[in-house]
Design a protein that fits this description.
single chain; about 150 residues; alpha+beta; Beta-Lactamase; seven-stranded mixed beta sheet; 4 helices; globular
Length: about 150
C-alpha cells in the first residue's frame, strides 16, 4: 500500500523546484540544496547526492552526518543498490532514490539516520531527468551533464 505524500511535503518540493528554476545556480549549488531539503523533509541526520562516474559513485553534495566520507559511496550500501537496481531502497534508517536519465541510473539521492517511519517514506520514486519528465518531485540532469 502506497501512502500519499502529505500536502506540506509536496508544497515543500514545489517550493524547492520553483527556487531552483528562478535562480541561476550551478549544478553543485542545486545538488547541495536538494541534499539539505531531503535531509529536512525526512528528518534525517544526513543526506547525499552522488553521481556515477565510471565504476564509482562520487559524492557531489552532502549535508548533516557525513556519508561517503572518502568522497565515494560503496555499491553495497542502500545508495549503491538504488543505483544498481534503478529503484528506491529503504533499508533501516537509510533511504535512497536513484537519479535516472532515461532508464539509466546516473546518481542517487540518499538520506541516513532517518527518523520518519517507513510509511512516511513510501512516496519515494525514482527521479527521472529529461524534458519528458517535468512533474515534481524530480531532479533534472541535463544531457550535457549526464
Amino acid at each position: 500500500m502506497t501512502v500519499p505524500p502529505s500536502t506540506e511535503r509536496l508544497l515543500s518540493v514545489i517550493e524547492l523546484q520553483n527556487a531552483v528554476a528562478a535562480t541561476a545556480m550551478s549544478t553543485d549549488q542545486v545538488m547541495s540544496i536538494v541534499a539539505e531539503r531531503a535531509r529536512l523533509l525526512l528528518g534525517s541526520a544526513g543526506a547525499v547526492v552522488g553521481v556515477v562516474e565510471g565504476p564509482d559513485i562520487i559524492v557531489r553534495a552532502a549535508r548533516g552526518v557525513a556519508i561517503g566520507s572518502d568522497g565515494r559511496i560503496a555499491r553495497t550500501t542502500a545508495f549503491g543498490r538504488a543505483v544498481a537496481d534503478g529503484k528506491p531502497v529503504i533499508d533501516g534508517k537509510e533511504t535512497a532514490v536513484p537519479l535516472l536519465y532515461g532508464e539509466s541510473a546516473v546518481g542517487v539521492l540518499g538520506t541516513t539516520g532517518t527518523t520518519a517511519t517507513p510509511e512516511g517514506r513510501r512516496d519515494a520514486a525514482p527521479a527521472r531527468a529529461g524534458r519528458r519528465h517535468r512533474a515534481p518531485p524530480r531532479l533534472h540532469v541535463s544531457q550535457a551533464e549526464a
